[in-house]
Amino acid sequence: MKKLKYFIPAIIWMIFIFIMSHTNGNESSNQSNFIVKIVLEFININHETLSFMIRKIAHMSEYAILLLFIYYGLYKTITYKYQLLISLLITFIYACSDEFHQLFIPGRSGQFMDVLIDTSGALIMLLIIYLWQKRKKPNQ
């Protein structure tokens, strides 16, 4: 039971992702357009391209953070390499469920390409964790 408390950040983050995914298409676009307007003040780039990039970077970031929280939850409960693998697997499965959830939200669409983008964010975090651990323990 004591070890369950280490999963609280991951659970809270999953709830956050669920809430963000539950917003309809217009609300979701308004959220990203707020950031697009700010960035367009500094960079001359096509509005649609920038909006696409911001949305996909947000996806990657959300799932990078989720992998980190799941990894933290698994910390010292299983071997290091299994921590990485299981963290990635859980993140991938949650990304799949998130895209399935979006199929039922007006103005949203669940796309496997988004699952791949989400998972790529998780893979980047996995690589960061791996390199960090390798730096701390060079004999691994």
Q: Could you characterize the architecture of this molecule?
A:
With 140 residues, the chain is mainly alpha-helical. The chain has one domain (2-136). The protein has helices at 8-22, 25-40, 47-74, 80-102, 112-136. The longest helix is centred in the middle third of the chain and has 28 residues, at 47-74. The radius of gyration is 17 Å and the shape is globular. The model has no long low-confidence stretch (mean pLDDT 89).
In whole angstroms, the N-to-C terminal distance is: 31 Å
Number of domains: 1
Could you state the order of secondary-structure elements as H and E? HHHHH
* Rg of Cα set: 17 Å
Overall helicity: over 70%
**Low-pLDDT segments, ≥5 res:** none
Count of discrete alpha- or pi-helical segments spanning 4 or more residues: 5
Q: Overall mean pLDDT score?
A: 89
Indicate the proportion of strand residues.
under 5%
Secondary-structure content class: mainly alpha
How many β-strand stretches?
0
What about the largest sheet?
none
Instruction: Label the overall shape.
Output: globular
List keywords for this structure.
transmembrane, VanZ like family protein, mainly alpha, single chain, VanZ-like, transmembrane helix, 76% helix, 140 residues
In summary, what is this structure?
With 140 residues, this protein is mostly helical. Helix content is 76%, strand content 0%.
Indicate the topology.
Layout: H1 8-22, H2 25-40, H3 47-74, H4 80-102, H5 112-136
Helix pairs in contact: 1-3, 1-4, 2-3, 3-4, 3-5, 4-5
